[in-house]
Predict the 3D structure of the following.
Amino acid sequence: MIVLFIDEIHMLMGDGKSDAANLLKPMLARGTLHCIGATTITEYRKYVEKDGAFERRFQRVDVKEPSIRETVAILRGLQPRYEIHHGVRILDSALVTAAQLASRYLTYRKLPDSAVDLIDEAAASVAVARDSKPEELDSKERQLNLLEVEIKALERDQDADASTKERLEQARQKYQSIEEELEPIRAKYAEERAGHEELTNAKRKLDELEVKAQDAERRHDSATVADIRYFAIPDLKNRIDELEAQVAEEEAKSEDFLVKNVVGAEQVAETAAKLTGIPVQKLTQAENAKLITMEKELSSAVVGQGDAVKAVANAIRLSRSGLANPNQPASFLFLGLSGSELIVQS
């Protein structure tokens, strides 16, 4: 059975009799066409609901926004594709952090879309930084370029006086010294890049093998399926595990790793901070720590109102502990003389 899936199905609706929706109605009524359409609630009400004949041929199914736990599961399913696309390694902690931060701070968008974009942007940032030369390497190569220009200029005028010859010799010695310092850095940088590229290529090859296996299954090619599923894929997975263990071991040994190719919770928090304007420290601070220091934070903005600050903090802690109805809003009535709002620091 073939099922037709139409994304943004409201785009089929038109003003005339020759729109795509009218062309599909006879086949939908006879049951010769199996179709699934997707659209937003707003667009459904604006376009689809107005055409009762077209709407009756579909069963409406409301898809709710996934929870944080469900979003993490979705991100885990997408993780290999984003690792291959950006050529980076995405940690599970990054997926959990993305779901939590997107749910709490990117409220103008819905899960899992907001969390997926967080992971995508964080991975892209790491990939761009990886493809750029490390600061240490780039700085020394810039020094070499400047010295090359200086040496060429001094070589033209070396017969002018003794001081020029002396400066030329000093420049050559400095150039040689920096070149010697650069040699191990370049070797380390090339080695680290090669290791990450091999791991990325292995993951890309694994994805290609999965596609080939699925294609062979559709063609009922049992020999090819068996060869890929039981030999090629297991061997490649073992190689990927070895490469990941090797990269993790090297990163653990050396803190000054030149090629940063890992997307963790910190990178996701930095991306969220750029999108929201909230400092990274506040994004990554544990909720328990925020609840404990709530009076201190509020008192820094509200002066001389200890009782009010304490009442608000206690109400919030009561709600977060699960002892209050989470769907019931908190209502506070602050009473005071005219002008008392000036206790809030600007």
About this structure: The two ends are 66 Å apart (CA to CA).
